[in-house]
Design brief:
Layout lengths: L4 H4 L1 H55 L2 E2 L20 H21 L1 H4 L1 H9 L2 H5 L7 H11 L1 H7 L16 E2 L2 E2 H14 L5 H59 L8 E2 L5 H22 L11 H82 L2 E2 L16 H21 L5 H11 L2 H9 L6 H4 L4 H7 L4 H5 L2 E2 L2 E2 H13 L6 H60 L5 E2 L5 H21 L16 H18 L8 H35 L5 H11 L11 H25 L1
Parallel strand pairs: 1-4, 5-8
Antiparallel strand pairs: 2-3, 6-7
């Protein structure tokens, strides 16, 4: 078209160049915006890494350094596959220390002194690579030097696309395979072609613009990917920092509970299992932190390294596993805490229960001891007085009962000594026996104790010279501490209770699950033993009360025999001693049975109330008292049908109370039958005749017949009462 070509195609040329400029500017704006956003993210990531080393890692190294000989590798954690896991722990610590030192220098100088390029370098090429290996004291200049020499770092840390990035030629920067310098050249071509280009040139410029736009879009996508990965690392490091800080606090708390050695450190072996696990998890977190801070985002060509995403995912899995272990450890600590709290509450409960029961039992024993002292006098003083009017008493043991092998003469002598001291006590005051003395009498009868006191009663401090059982002293708290701790009652000792208490108290801060379970079980075992001991306390006081009840019952029987002996004395009506051999057989039998009852009274009063395992005497436990009671029942059984003339007085004395009881019961049953008769009359039934029959049958008419002995009266009254009741019950059922 010649010279008219420019005129003819001017509109088309202008349209091509304007469109080229428009699409280029739009792409460039997007490109610059993405560059700014990516740079900001990388700068944030770089600053976060620097802060992570200068703060978190520094604090960790200080806290972790308080412990010596820490076992950093645990066979239970072989599944962890950390980056740099082949590095030796000491090497990791040295690298961490270098990085934290240089990061701290950067923080002191301020990140502005470092520059954006250096911070971007820390973010993209790994903080450890740029921090841990920098020369000590020259970290800032070293980082700046690296940033200036690396085109990509310089470009990210520099100005606009046109400026070339801190003096570095744009042509050396490659993002996603795109040379950034070529994009800048395309922009210059578009600007230079305005008003001069021909159609062919305009088309070429438009094509160059489209190519530049395509490259900018590729580069923008690359930067967007870098920004996305950078943001993910920022988020992960923040999450990791929270858990890491928590474990640093836990380490400091552990350190505060333990005493440091001469080197100023705490030995790892001295820590509890939970504390060792806490340190181990802290070290695992530090490894993970160290490795995630060292991950490069870009390769040497400035492209996003695919491994950076993979390593982040792996780090997230590692953190998840550590978090799970942390949760398990927390659950373990909660379980330990619950077990120990349960053990402490249970220990306090059962130990207090034991000592309260011991104190309560001591008071009961003291009261029982006072009663038992009075029983000695109440039982034997009248008996000894009754015998003083007879001489040459010869006991033939005509009754076949073996309550005790102790001769009656020895019993008389022993009782005289006991009564002698009791009389002395009444003059001086019963309190001279003090609590331990009364407990001694309650538990061990008091025969030897009171008899021995009678021999030394004129001394200034007889209670200090007389023998007392350790158990009596233990009850009242006067026993030597060492002996008291080893004194067994039931199956438990106070020393064992104290040992369990120290175990429960001493575990705090050094606990582990196995030990907590063991302690919990030990306290439960102690509870069972203490419950058994409490049962023994109750059994002891129960046996003591049984003694008093048995003696009181026998005393009533003996009182009738003593009255009969007094009647025998009056019968002979003499002021001189009565010769025993002159008595009739019937009268001698009264003496014989009285002696048998006295033997029972003696064996019961002198008997020990504790078994051998509780500090008693195996040959003199409550079985002696039980034997005496059993023999008395045998006597009653043997005399139930005894009609021997020589034994009639003895039988009457033994059965008088029983016969009287059935007498009163017969009257009561007769009255009940009479009431039944009136009731039948009121309701108009003929059964009232049966009521009259029952009243007549049960009426104790035999009490009028003196030729009936008390055992026969008892026997027949029982039969008549039972028969009367049977009649009434059968009639009531049939009616």
């Amino acid at each position: 078209m010649g010279i008219f070509e420019g005129i003819t195609h001017s509109e088309e040329i202008k349209e091509l160049l304007d469109d080229a400029q428009l699409i280029y500017d739009n792409a460039k704006t997007k490109f610059d915006s993405q560059k700014k956003s990516t740079t900001k993210s990388l700068e944030t990531l770089g600053r976060k890494k620097v802060n992570a080393y200068s703060k978190d890692m520094t604090i960790f190294l200080d806290s972790f350094g308080a412990f010596n000989n820490v076992q950093m590798v645990c066979k239970n954690d072989d599944n962890y596959d950390f980056i740099g896991k082949n590095e030796k722990p000491n090497e990791l610590v040295v690298n961490m220390q270098n990085a934290t030192y240089n990061a701290s220098e950067i923080i002191k100088a301020g990140t502005l002194a470092v520059g954006t390029g250096a911070l971007v370098g820390v973010a993209t090429y790994g903080g450890v690579a740029m921090l841990a290996h920098a020369s000590t004291g020259t970290a800032i200049s070293t980082l700046n030097g690296i940033a200036k020499k690396n085109a990509t770092l310089a470009w990210f840390g520099g100005g606009s696309l046109a400026s070339g990035g801190m003096g570095i030629a744009g042509g050396t920067v490659v993002l996603g395979g795109v040379v950034i310098g070529a994009i800048a050249i395309a922009g210059g071509m578009i600007a230079g072609a305005q008003g001069k280009a021909k159609l062919a040139e305009a088309k070429k410029v438009h094509a160059e613009a489209e190519l530049a736009v395509s490259k900018m879009n590729i580069a923008s996508s690359c930067m967007q990917g870098i920004e996305s990965v950078s943001n993910n690392y920022i988020e992960f490091i923040s999450e990791l920092s929270v858990l890491f800080s928590t474990y640093i606090s836990k380490m400091n708390s552990i350190a505060s509970k333990h005493q440091r050695g001469s080197d100023g450190k705490i030995e790892f072996d001295e820590l509890s299992e939970v504390e060792q696990k806490t340190l181990h998890l802290s070290w695992l977190l530090a490894q993970l932190y160290y490795n995630i801070l060292s991950v490069p985002l870009l390769n040497k060509d400035g492209e996003l390294d695919p491994k950076s995403r993979q390593l982040l995912q792996k780090a997230k899995l590692d953190l998840s596993q550590i978090s799970n272990q942390s949760n398990e450890l927390e659950e373990e600590q909660k379980k330990i805490k619950n077990l120990l709290e349960e053990a402490k509450k249970l220990f306090d409960k059962v130990s207090n229960k034991f000592y309260k029961k011991k104190q309560k039992t001591t008071k009961k024993l003291e009261t029982i001891g006072r009663k038992r002292v009075y029983l000695w006098k109440e039982t034997f003083a009248p008996f000894m007085d009754a015998l003083t009017h007879f001489e040459n008493i010869s006991v033939n043991s005509c009754y076949p009962y073996s309550v005790t092998d102790i001769p009656i003469e020895f019993i008389f002598e022993s009782c005289e000594n006991v009564l002698s001291y009791i009389n002395h006590m009444e003059l001086e005051g019963l309190d001279t026996l003090n609590s331990t003395g009364f407990v001694e009498v309650a538990l061990f009868g008091g025969e030897d104790f009171l008899g021995e006191l009678a021999q030394i009663k004129n001394n200034e401090n007889p209670m200090q010279e007389v023998h007392r059982h350790d158990m009596s002293l233990w009850f009242t708290g006067e026993l030597d501490k060492t002996l008291a701790e080893n004194m067994t009652f039931g199956t438990v000792t106070e020393g064992y209770i104290s040992a369990v208490g120290e175990m429960v108290q001493g575990i705090t801060g050094r606990e582990n699950l196995a030990q907590a379970i063991e302690i919990n079980q030990e306290v439960k075992s102690l509870e069972a033993k203490i419950n058994k001991a409490i049962g023994e306390f109750d059994a002891t006081t129960k046996k003591c009360k049984k003694i008093i009840s048995s003696i009181s019952r026998l005393n009533k029987v003996q009182a009738r025999f003593l009255n009969e002996i007094e009647a025998i004395e009056k019968k002979y009506n003499t002021t001189s001693m009565i010769e025993y051999s002159l008595l009739k057989n019937e009268e001698k039998n009264v003496f014989e049975m009285s002696f048998e009852i006295a033997k029972m009274q003696y064996t019961i009063l002198a008997s020990c109330m504790l078994a051998e395992q509780n500090g008693g005497d195996m040959d003199d436990t409550s079985i002696v008292a039980d034997t005496a009671c059993r023999e008395y029942r045998k006597i009653k059984k043997d005399t139930l049908k005894n009609n021997n003339a020589d034994d009639i007085t003895v039988v009457n004395l033994l059965w008088k109370n029983n016969a009287d009881v059935m007498l009163y019961l017969g009257f009561i049953i007769s009255v009940a039958c009479i009431i039944f008769t009136f009731y039948q009359l009121l309701v108009g039934k003929m059964l009232w005749l049966i009521g009259i029959a029952g009243a007549i049958v049960s009426w104790p008419i035999f009490y009028k017949f003196k030729d009936f002995s008390n055992n026969r009266l008892f026997f027949w009254r029982c039969i008549r009462i039972a028969f009367a009741l049977l009649i009434v019950i059968l009639v009531e059922i049939l009616g």
